Amino acid sequence: MKQNKALFKMMGLSVITAGLLVGCGGGSSSTNSSSQLAGALIKGPISNANITLYDENGIELASTTSKEGKFLLPKVDVSSPYYTIESKGGWYIDEATEQNITVPNTDGLKSLLTKAEFEDMLNNSKFVALTPETTIFTELTKEKLQTLDLATAISESEQTVYDLLIKDSSPMPGLSGDKLLKSGDLTKAIPSDKTEAFAKNRAIAFSNLMKDLGIAPERVFEILGKLKDDFIDGKADGINIDGKDVNASQDYSLSRTNLFNDTTSRLRDGNLSAAQTEELRLMGFDIDSLRGDKANKEANLTAEVNKYLTSTTLPTLHVLETMNDEDGNSTDAQATYTLTANKDVNVTIETPDGLWVTPMWRYNNKQLPLVIRTDRGDAMTLNLDNQLDADSTIHWHGFKIPAIMDGGPDVPVASNTTKAYTFTMNQPAAPLWFHPHPDMQTGKQVYMGLAGVYLLEDEITKTLESNKNLPSGARDVTLLVQDRRFASEANGVRELQYKTMEMDSDGMLGDTILVNGSVLPKYEVDTAQHRLRLYNVSNARNYDFAFNDNRKFKVVATDGGLLNVPVEVDHITLGAAERVEIIVDFSQDAVGSKVMMVSQPTKGDMMSMMGGNNSDMNGSDSGMNGNGMSGMGGNGSNMNGNGMSGMSGNGMGGMEGMAGSGEGLVIMRFDVTTSVTDDVSLYSTLPVTAEIATRIDPTTAANANSPRQFLMTMARGNNGGDIGDGNMNGGSMNMSFVINGKTFDPNRVDEFIDAGATEIWEIKNASPMAHPFHAHAVQYQILERNGVAATGTDLGWKDTFLVQPGKTVKIIAKFDPTINVGDYMYHCHILEHEDAGMMGYFRVGATGNVAN
């Protein structure tokens, strides 16, 4: 009882005058009748709240006032089957806005305790916790008690709150400790254990939810009531806020993910308090490896840049071969090309340290990916000759074509058979590309080397080039950037390694960066502007492209074509499958100077931050090098023998087993060799006839007031072993990424769109890692990111866009009724996620079964 007396004194209350309130219903008094119930309420610690204890009949038993979130109720007899504790009024500081919030006298937090729980807290001097979650739980239980017995009502309500709020919002599903908490002092600077740390974090996330929804913070108690009403049927169907339908359960997941991202970012930057740092440690983050992470990555990248700026052994960049039109007439508006998919093509890989041979898969037995260059309006015949041992397709990525010609998994091309893709190009000039898209084999076939470039031109680009408003000819070069992992050399041969590590299924990352098939090549330029068509054709990796001297450059095109106005930047982030065209000006560089293109260090993602011995993922038999998720990698050589660690910013860098974990990378070098007078004056705006010059009006969308929703989330499964308590002991952990809670089913269409419709889509990412969302059929325009109107490069045509953890991207598209008919795909373009089922069909204009 010393703890409670001390608390009483701290609050300025008198133990003697507190009084004894006896519960109703007669019966014998509990042996703890002299005990007092301590508690803590947090939506921010609430001060000056009126706290009232009620019995099962709603009779008031005791009351007090909170101070800095704590309270101590006067003594009561424990005789009621259950009790509710409620707060009303008071004030707190909202964590998201830092505003001083006055709680209305009719609002507050609640908790419900059984007699046994009440006695346990009294006997063991525990604090009863009043949080947003216990408030929802209490109201659910009280409503269910109208038809259910106490035990069942409590059990169902606890499960509902866990399933619809906690589990679905967890940044790492299944982590032990991330569960409903009824007891604990959440007002302490440093929580006592993992469960308290998670509960405190979840309470704070409600403040972020209100801010993200654009609702006044004090209305959080109103939202809690609406969530109770939403959850009563065991499903999160959504609520209505000021006339707008909102899935607050989903949005809470985003807010919580966003909070984790912000907190871990501040840790990386050294801006997190000691108490907050310890809270992260309790939740399972690998604090020691994260401290100084940003500085270490920058130092590593600087060392790599300095090493290769002076190197005399860099290979020369390969210029990709452009295919010839097979009809022999380059002036007509039709073209024919044949692409034969071959296995075991011996490709020579050139590096600063020599060369080796790697058997790869290639089109037409070529050493490098091929380029097809055609004009808008061309009628295309593209023949696939599949000489692989498995089904394949060619997906025409970013093309506006009928579904039957799109090359998705619904129209496979069997081994040793052919298919002719025929369509007419009816879209603006753009840096498009093509790659296989067979069900569950896309990642492997692309990784093994099957991909190519499709450069579409139109009258606008031709005019800009002829008028010297865009670099062309030798100053227009395509750069395919991809990462690969190679086995140790044997007789001059190094085999490609695909999904040879435990976590490759969550995003296949290599430790060696190739640009047009070479490791760290150099490219000779003159003192003029150069147009670099930059493709991220990696399976999973994100790049943040920049230059070692921090020079600015201009982005003139995105996935689907030229920007109406060039955008000046000093870096550009590309997720897997994204493309840009950039203009780099070397006119002020001296002959003999050298400039390195790099991928800047980034903060990574939360999956790369979980680990160490506090993450409950020790995985002694899971293939994680015996040290949890943080133990993967090292310097690259631990992965595959000699590892090529020096070529890619210290190789795997401790946790490169997950996409986008943020190591700095050296990409290639530009050597200024010739002095010339630059004759290009870059365009300042496109002609008014350019399609991108007109933004699609959101008010014309059929679903302007109710955007089509796509929620990307993560679930956890296992292959053997017991993970029910969040531990991995003898089993392996698999992350399952899904969209709208569904994995891909080839016999199911998930979304139906009217032919000719204009639609708004809202893509939300409640998972702990960034996902590049790709949708087929048309090119899209980004309307908003996280409620902020699109600017800069987001104003271009896009078919793939990176959605960061906890973030939302809103897009709009018009589906052409004469072209867009049939079943198309939407999916994550981390190809291992796609193959594992993070994908679905949407049908435009058609009815019936999936096309065959």
Q: Which percent band covers the strand fraction?
A: 25-35%
Oligomer: single chain
Average pLDDT: 87
Rg (C-alpha, Å): 30 Å
Task: Categorize the overall geometry.
Answer: elongated
Reading side by side through the largest sheet, how are the strands ordered? 24-23-22-26-31-28-29
Largest sheet: 7 strands, mixed
Which parts are unreliable, with pLDDT below 50 for 5 consecutive residues or more?
A: 1-34, 612-660, 718-733, 848-852
Task: Please count the beta strands (DSSP E, at least 2 residues each).
Answer: 45
Instruction: Please bin the fraction of helical residues.
Output: 10-25%
Number of DSSP helices?
14
**End-to-end distance, in Å?**
74 Å
Alpha-beta classification? alpha+beta
Short description:
By secondary structure, the protein is α+β, with helices and mostly antiparallel strands.
Give the arrangement of secondary structure elements:
Blueprint: H1 2-10, E1 20-21, E2 37-41, E3 50-54, E4 60-65, E5 70-73, E6 75-76, E7 82-88, E8 91-93, E9 100-102, E10 110-114, H2 115-123, E11 127-130, H3 132-144, H4 150-166, H5 194-213, H6 220-231, E12 239-241, E13 244-246, H7 248-268, H8 274-283, H9 287-290, H10 293-309, E14 334-351, E15 354-363, E16 371-375, E17 379-386, E18 395-397, E19 417-424, E20 430-435, H11 442-447, E21 452-457, H12 459-466, E22 476-484, E23 512-515, E24 518-519, E25 522-526, E26 529-536, E27 543-547, E28 553-558, E29 561-569, E30 572-574, E31 579-585, E32 594-599, H13 637-640, E33 665-674, E34 708-719, E35 732-739, E36 751-753, E37 758-765, E38 771-775, E39 780-785, E40 788-789, E41 797-798, E42 800-803, E43 808-814, E44 822-828, H14 831-835, E45 839-844
Parallel strand pairs: 1-6, 2-11, 14-17, 16-21, 22-26, 25-33, 34-37, 36-45
Antiparallel strand pairs: 2-5, 3-4, 3-7, 7-10, 8-9, 12-13, 14-15, 17-19, 18-20, 20-21, 22-23, 23-24, 26-31, 27-30, 27-32, 28-29, 28-31, 32-33, 34-35, 37-43, 38-42, 38-44, 39-40, 39-41, 39-43, 44-45
